[in-house]
């Protein structure tokens, strides 16, 4: 009985460790930089207290950090994006701490 209870926990731990140790997804999967003047679907202000942000695949987002900003197009199609550090897509020196980015699947891409 104890073995039956332990096995699922070990399997879940192994899978989580495998994802955490996996190579980061290519930027092409996450999306691409957009011009500052691009129309955006959402503006997210990031400050020292920000630990995570939520965006939707298929959207264009402007991130405002103090007096600087950058714009990203999350054109992910049907690809599932693994949460990543916003510093991966931010211009160098814009962020001074880790901000986990969660990308939800755009409902327009879901099969009915």
Would you kindly provide a written description of the structure presented here, covering whatever features stand out?
About 20% of the residues lie in helices and about 30% in strands. With about 110 residues, it is α/β, with parallel strands linked by helices. The protein starts with a helix and ends in an 8-residue tail after the last strand. It has two helices and seven strands, in the order H-H-E-E-E-E-E-E-E.
- Rg, Cα atoms, Å: 17 Å
Fraction in helix = 10-25%
Order of helices and strands: HHEEEEEEE
Count of spatially separate domains = 1
Instruction: Assign an overall shape.
Output: globular
Give me the secondary-structure topology.
Blueprint: H1 2-21, H2 27-30, E1 32-34, E2 42-46, E3 52-56, E4 60-65, E5 68-73, E6 84-85, E7 100-104
Parallel strand pairs: 2-4, 3-7
Antiparallel strand pairs: 1-5, 4-5, 6-7
Which key phrases capture this entry?
alpha/beta; 7 strands; 2 helices; Immunoglobulin-like; 3-stranded mixed β-sheet; 112 residues; 4-stranded mixed β-sheet
In a few lines, what is going on in this structure?
This protein has 112 residues and is an alpha/beta fold.
């Amino acid at each position: 009985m104890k073995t039956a209870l332990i096995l699922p926990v070990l399997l879940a731990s192994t899978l989580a460790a495998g994802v955490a140790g996996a190579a980061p997804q290519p930027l092409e999967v996450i999306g691409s930089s957009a011009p500052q003047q691009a129309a955006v679907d959402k503006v997210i202000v990031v400050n020292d207290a920000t630990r995570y942000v939520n965006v939707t695949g298929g959207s264009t987002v402007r991130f405002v950090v103090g007096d600087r900003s950058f714009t990203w197009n999350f054109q992910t199609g049907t690809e599932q994006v693994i949460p990543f550090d916003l510093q991966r897509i931010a211009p160098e020196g814009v962020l001074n701490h880790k901000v986990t980015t969660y990308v939800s699947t755009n409902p327009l891409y879901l099969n009915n």
